[in-house]
Design the sequence.
C-alpha cells in the first residue's frame, strides 16, 4: 500500500453541529445533550473556532456500522429507537426516540474525519461527541450505543487497507469495548491509562492484559489508583510512546475522555487539562514521525461540563499549534 505524501499545509478539523449534540440521554443525565455546547462555548472563548476548519456531522449507513457491529444488534437498536423504550444493555444505557439516528451520527462523524485524514484533506481532527469505547460488537454498554472507535478501526483496516492502527485511551474508564474486540488482533496497537478496575466501571484493563495469540505484546493496559494525578500520568506516558514506536502504526486514534480530570462526578482521578495537552502534543509529534501526521481525537467521557470544555479545548489547541514535522521533506 502506498499513500501519497501530502506536502501542503493541511487543515485541522473540529466537528460541530446540532445532530452531533443529540447523542445524549436527556437533560440532567451525566451524558446529556448539553455537552457539545459546553465544549463549543470554550472553543469560541479561546478563539479556536477561527483557526480550525469547522466541519458538520455526518450519519453513517448500516453497512459502515456493520463493519464492527452485528446485524442483530443494529436491528435491535433500530427497533428500540422507534419505540424509545427499554434499555440497550443491562441498565446503564436507555433507549430514547431517535437513538439509532443519534448513535449513527456519532459513527458517521468519526468516519468522516477518518476519510478526510486518509484523503489528505485534513491532517488532525477532533470529534467531541464520540469515543464511545464501551459498546461491544453485539451490545450497548456504559452510555455507549455504537462504538465509533471500533467502527473507525475496522474501517481503516478493511476499507482503507491499513496494516497497523494505534488506539490510545486516556478516559478514566478502561476502553473495554475496543480492547476485547481486538484483543487477538495484532493490527491494533492499544494503549489505555485508566482508573484501576477494582475501583471503577467496567472493572477490566489489568496490566496483565497484553493481547492474546498473535497479538501478544500489542496491548498496553496501565491501571492507576484513585486520585492519580498529572505527575503519575506523565511518568507512565513514555510507555505509550515506546509501544507506538515499537509497532509503527499508520494511523493514530486518541480517545481523550475528560472524566479523568479532578472534579468529575463519577470517577476518582485528579488530572488537570495539562495531561490532555501533553497527550495531544506528543501524539502530534509521533503521528508526524510515524504516519504522515494522521491523528484523530474522539472526545469520550467527561461529566463535569467545565472539565470537558477545558480538556477538549486543550487537545484542539495542541492540534492547532503543534509544529508540522517529519513528512514534510
Ligand atoms: Zn469514561
Sequence:
Amino acid at each position: 500500500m502506498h499513500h501519497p505524501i501530502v506536502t501542503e499545509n493541511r487543515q485541522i478539523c473540529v466537528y460541530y453541529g446540532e445532530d452531533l449534540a443529540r447523542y445524549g440521554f436527556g437533560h440532567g443525565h451525566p451524558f446529556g445533550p448539553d455537552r457539545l455546547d459546553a465544549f463549543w462555548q470554550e472553543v469560541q472563548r479561546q478563539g479556536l473556532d477561527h483557526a480550525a476548519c469547522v466541519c458538520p456531522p455526518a450519519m453513517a449507513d448500516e453497512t459502515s456500522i456493520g463493519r464492527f457491529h452485528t446485524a442483530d444488534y443494529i436491528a435491535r437498536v433500530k427497533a428500540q429507537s422507534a419505540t424509545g423504550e427499554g434499555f440497550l444493555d443491562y441498565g446503564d444505557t436507555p433507549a430514547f426516540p431517535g437513538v439509532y439516528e443519534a448513535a449513527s451520527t456519532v459513527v458517521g462523524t468519526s468516519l468522516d474525519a477518518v476519510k478526510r485524514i486518509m484523503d489528505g484533506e485534513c491532517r488532525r481532527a477532533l470529534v467531541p461527541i464520540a469515543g464511545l469505547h464501551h459498546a461491544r460488537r453485539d451490545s450497548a454498554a456504559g452510555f455507549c450505543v455504537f462504538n465509533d472507535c471500533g467502527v473507525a478501526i475496522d474501517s481503516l483496516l478493511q476499507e482503507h487497507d491499513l496494516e497497523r492502527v494505534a488506539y490510545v485511551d486516556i478516559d478514566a474508564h478502561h476502553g473495554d469495548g475496543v480492547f476485547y474486540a481486538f484483543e487477538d488482533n495484532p493490527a491494533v496497537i492499544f494503549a489505555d491509562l485508566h482508573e484501576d478496575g477494582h475501583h471503577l466501571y467496567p472493572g477490566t484493563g489489568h496490566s496483565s492484559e497484553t493481547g492474546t495469540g498473535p497479538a501478544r505484546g500489542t496491548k498496553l493496559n496501565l491501571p492507576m489508583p484513585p486520585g492519580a494525578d498529572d505527575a503519575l500520568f506523565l511518568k507512565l506516558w513514555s510507555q505509550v510512546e515506546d509501544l507506538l514506536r515499537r509497532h509503527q502504526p499508520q494511523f493514530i486514534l486518541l480517545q481523550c475522555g475528560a472524566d479523568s480530570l479532578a472534579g468529575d462526578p463519577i470517577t476518582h482521578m485528579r488530572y488537570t487539562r495539562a495531561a490532555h495537552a501533553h497527550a495531544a502534543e506528543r501524539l502530534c509529534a509521533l503521528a508526524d514521525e510515524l504516519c504522515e501526521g494522521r491523528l484523530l481525537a474522539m472526545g469520550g467521557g467527561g461529566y463535569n461540563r467545565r472539565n470537558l470544555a477545558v480538556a477538549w479545548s486543550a487537545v484542539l489547541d495542541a492540534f492547532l499549534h503543534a509544529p508540522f514535522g517529519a513528512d514534510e521533506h
Q: What stands out?
A: The chain is about 40% helix and 10% strand.
